Amino acid sequence: MNKLMKSPWTAWIGAILSFLFGVVDFLKHLARPALTYYLMGVSTWITIVAWQTMQQVSETTPLTTVQAYTLFDKIITIMVYLTVSCVSWWFADRRTAKFLMRLEDGNAKQ
């Protein structure tokens, strides 16, 4: 990169490459929070749609208590699964990777 930036003929290529590296780095760091917010938004949307569907169905044909409980149980299970997946991937992935790196490196504390 230094050779690209020092030459007057190739400095513009170096500037473009530096900008593109910055964009890629930004997108890389945005991936985990974006997935977390996306999954939380989708789970909220699923809950709202299920609630509206249950209200519409209950006006025409009432749901039994067992059907309503099963519907909300599935929604809550999905939301908890998504939340646990996101949070554990967000936090535990880094800790596990660091731990495994230390084990392979022979740098583990004894």
Walk me through what this model shows.
This protein has 110 residues and is mostly helical. The chain has a domain at 30-105. It is 87% helix and 0% strand. It has three helices and no strands. It has helices at residues 2-6, 11-60, 65-105. Helix 2 runs antiparallel to helix 3. The radius of gyration is 25 Å and the shape is elongated. The model has no long low-confidence stretch (mean pLDDT 76).
* Measured distance between first and last alpha carbons: 42 Å
Helix content: over 70%
Largest sheet: none
Can you give the mean pLDDT? 76
- Give, in order, the helices and strands: HHH
Number of strands: 0
Judged by helices, strands and strand pairing, the structural class is: mainly alpha
- Can you tell me the overall shape? elongated
Fill in the keyword field for this structure.
single chain; 3 helices; 110 residues; mainly alpha; 87% helix; elongated
Topology:
Elements: H1 2-6, H2 11-60, H3 65-105
Q: What is the gist of this entry?
A:
The chain has 110 residues and is an all-alpha fold. It contains three helices and no strands. The protein has a domain of 76 residues.
